[in-house]
Description:
The chain is α/β, with parallel strands linked by helices and 347 residues long. The protein has two domains: 3-227, Metallo-beta-lactamase, Chain A (4-Layer Sandwich); 231-338, 3-Layer(aba) Sandwich (Oxidized Rhodanese, domain 1). The chain contains twelve helices and 19 strands. Helix 3 packs across helix 5 (197-205) and helix 7 (229-237) packs across helix 11. It is elongated. The structure holds fe (ii) ion.
Amino acid sequence: MDMIFRQIRTKQGCQSYMIGCKETCAAIIIDPEISQMEHYQGLATQDGLVLHYLLDTHTHADHFSASKVLAAKMDVPLIMHNNSPAPFVDIRVDDGEMVIVGQLRFRILHTPGHTADSMCVIMDDRVFTGDTLLIGGTGRTDLPTGDPEQLYDSLFNGLLKLNPDLIVYPAHIYSERCHSTLAEEIANNPRLQKTHRDEFVEQMRTLDLKMPTHLTEALRTNLCGGKNVSQLIAEAAKKVSFMAQDEVLRRIQSLHPDMLLIDVREKEAYDQAHIPSAIHIPRGQIELRVNDMLPDPTKRILVYCECGKISTLATATLKEMGFGRAVALDLGICSWKENGYPVEKSG
Ligand SMILES: [Fe+2]
């Protein structure tokens, strides 16, 4: 099969796949992840590929899908299963259907269980198993729309009946490995050793797993297409410049300080310790109080918070309001204190 195949992994073990047809240069990304967006665009350019589709194997609860943003940015349709509740899906597919990318054919196998909209995608000698089947594991069934009975059927009466030589490419890998095969999983995957329905279901019900970090935020953004917090901060950061901590120290200690410092944390935090000469405007009140507190829009303003995230958002807001010389402190007062730089108390 003449294809270009790229497996893209994040530090957390999320796997996504860019598969391109050599002959036509058409490509698809399976399970794109938001932090890899520029990586995908770079790879597509490097490989001479043109994206035709994005496909999510299911509604992810544990990481941020890039689908909505990437689909809009690159003007490509997003494919998901018919059961997906996300309103921004362009093409809804169901069991037995096929997606054609140039000369490559991707067959859809509906495999509910991890979620109601989970599917596996079979292409040539390989199968993209999403979270239905992992290397040495399966997706969990205790998150919204999960169902261990359905997972049993999807595995034992569906996926595991396919050609055992199929190469397994899951949506998560928590080891150094890149892939497995169905035969290998049938033989070695501990969860698949419980081949009776009741035992399998019992095993899934008693796993007692931790809730994934960012569960609600991931569901919110993946279902409704909202932005997550790091996206908001990254967008704000593109609009502002920063000042290093030693530079700020030098300026406030100089004979003629040329900057107004604004602490945008809550009052208790400001009262306990703030950078000398800083005034206090909590971030939530900036828009309402600038007219009284910052009469000179041409003044240079330095904004800081605890760790540098809220101050980035606040600085972007100030710039939008016309304070063209607003800059954000690199990092926050937390590392300012670690540097041993001076702070003051109120009262
Ligand atoms: Fe998942």
